[in-house]
Amino acid sequence: MAPLPPYVYASVPLILVSLWHAICSSRSYARSPSLFYARTWHPLPRVRYGELVVEILALAAATAYYATVVCSLRRGSTSEILALQQLCMLIFFTGVFLITFISEATVALPLPQDAHFSLLGVAFAIECFVAVCSASDPNLSFQLESFRILAALAAFSSSICFLLAWRSSSFLLSITFSASLALQGTWLFQIGVSLYSDRFLPEGCHHLSTGYTQCDVEVAKQRAVTIMDLLLIIHAFVIIFVYVFVYALACRGIAHARRNSGYDPMDVNGDSDHLQMKPLSKVVID
To answer: Which compartments does it reside in (predicted)?
Structure first.
């Protein structure tokens, strides 16, 4: 397998972006449920396109890293091909966010939100394929299970993106997409500490000189796979509780702001027959 980047560092941007999306989506939905629509990015308070710029820079740095990895590997080897797959995936993600930035910040490429979600769905589908290829040796069951779970999470994020492209007004789909990003981030962290840290290796497993992680005894293999499955359940529980807490805080904050201001926003998508409007006076133009 090709040398991998530090997954612990790669997980931090995903977790932060997912929490930011969860906060913004929850506040927007709590403010006006009928006017809610999902977004692939959310403006920062003082730097409107700050999120997109940071994501593009982070992806560009990761792409540059993988380019150096590809150059350092033996030409034509399996490791080089796997590294090229990961490099292409990062290039595609960078291109998607560049297209989104150009579309939102300029008039050169006007695209609807559903197109942005469709592009993200394709990007996560490519990530799913790359994750499956990252550990293809059936003898490495512990490592294979870790990347199978990552591939399943990427496939889940891809399907949610395509559903959001079809129905961007669904808050449930939007918050689920944010949660899937958070779960990918925490799982990347788990892969980093479980596969590439001696302290957290399951009993009976060890590192190989090729970069793989192997468990010699069948009992140790089964135990390591079971541990990873259990850790995934724990990750999912933690993220669900955190997101419920974030949504509750967002609703409480909006309700508190309304009580203090005495302002209740009007639902423009409601029944207009019940709106009392002052009749316009007749104007005569000479």
So the answer is: Membrane
